[in-house]
């Protein structure tokens, strides 16, 4: 009996503590701390493409309008988004680039974009095109464009498999030129590649020429092992 009375007393104390407990006031924190907390939840490793599926974490944007506005600024302003899809669904006629699906006010928060070249080097998907629907003119906060090259099809090892020696080089060069001219605040093009790709190769040479003609600063990422 004593045990039962003690347990009932504990339950009563617990309920009393619950009633006196106050909800944590997130917006009582300074903006710098709120952004830091949001960053732990909304900053992701790697580049975000159309196959992104971590919707449980970004569901916090649905808490309230104020929470949504602050969280959206962190989500879109702290991650790198891929310009054109590179997954297996990219060659579908219904597939659209991820950033083209964002409303214009989300694109204004973007600060980091990646153009990944190499996938679909025999036949680039139809959605790999720069037009008004892509919405690059809205990405006014993007200062740096990351360009990652997976393969250079102009290399002799691709002979017999490619659609002409210069096909992918010309396609990639034209695509980069259009991206550069469409980003209103772009200042720098940062190149990265797999070790098998040479900076002296035909593709990389053409891409850097396009960046120079666009009067953008050229930087190289750290070498990959």
Plain-language structure description:
The protein is of the alpha/beta class and 225 residues long. The protein has seven helices and six strands. Helix 2 packs across helix 4 (65-78) and helix 6 packs parallel to helix 7 (202-213). The longest helix has 19 residues, at 2-20. The chain is elongated, with a radius of gyration of 24 Å.
Tell me the β content.
5-15%
User: How many runs of DSSP E, i.e. beta strands?
Assistant: 6
Alpha plus pi helix count: 7
Q: Mind telling me the C-alpha Rg?
A: 24 Å
**Mean pLDDT figure:** 87
Inertia-based shape: elongated
Give the helix level as a range of percent. 25-40%
The SSE string, one letter per element, is HHEHHEHEEHEHE
Low-confidence region ranges = none
Could you give a short account of the major beta sheet? 6 strands, parallel
> Biggest sheet: strands side by side, in what order?
1-2-3-4-5-6
Which class best fits the helix and strand makeup? alpha/beta
Spatial gap, N to C terminus: 70 Å
Helices and strands, with pairings:
Elements: H1 2-20, H2 31-42, E1 47-48, H3 55-58, H4 65-78, E2 80-82, H5 104-107, E3 112-117, E4 144-149, H6 167-182, E5 188-193, H7 202-213, E6 217-220
Parallel strand pairs: 1-2, 2-3, 3-4, 4-5, 5-6
Helix pairs in contact: 2-4, 6-7
Question: Would you summarize the structure shown here?
Answer:
By secondary structure, the protein is of the alpha/beta class.
């Amino acid at each position: 009996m004593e045990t039962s009375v003690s347990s009932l007393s504990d339950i009563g104390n617990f309920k009393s503590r619950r009633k006196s407990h106050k909800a944590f006031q997130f917006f009582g924190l300074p903006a710098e701390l709120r952004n830091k907390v949001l960053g732990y939840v909304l900053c992701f490793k790697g580049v975000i493409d159309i196959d992104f599926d971590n919707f449980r974490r970004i569901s916090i944007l649905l808490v309230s309008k104020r929470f949504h506005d602050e969280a959206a600024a962190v989500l879109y302003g702290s991650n790198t988004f891929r310009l054109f899809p590179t997954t297996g669904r990219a060659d579908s006629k219904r597939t659209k680039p991820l950033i083209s699906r964002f409303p214009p006010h989300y694109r204004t928060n973007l600060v980091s974009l990646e153009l990944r070249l190499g996938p679909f080097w025999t036949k680039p998907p139809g959605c790999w095109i720069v037009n008004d629907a892509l919405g690059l003119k809205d990405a006014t906060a993007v200062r740096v464009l990351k360009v990652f090259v997976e393969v250079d099809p102009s290399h002799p090892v691709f002979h017999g498999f490619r659609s002409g020696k210069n096909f992918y080089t010309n396609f990639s060069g034209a695509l980069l030129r259009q991206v550069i001219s469409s980003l209103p605040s772009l200042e720098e093009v940062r190149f990265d590649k797999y070790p098998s790709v040479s900076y002296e190769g035909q593709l990389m040479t053409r891409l850097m020429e396009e960046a120079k003609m666009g009067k953008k600063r050229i930087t190289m990422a750290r070498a990959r092992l």
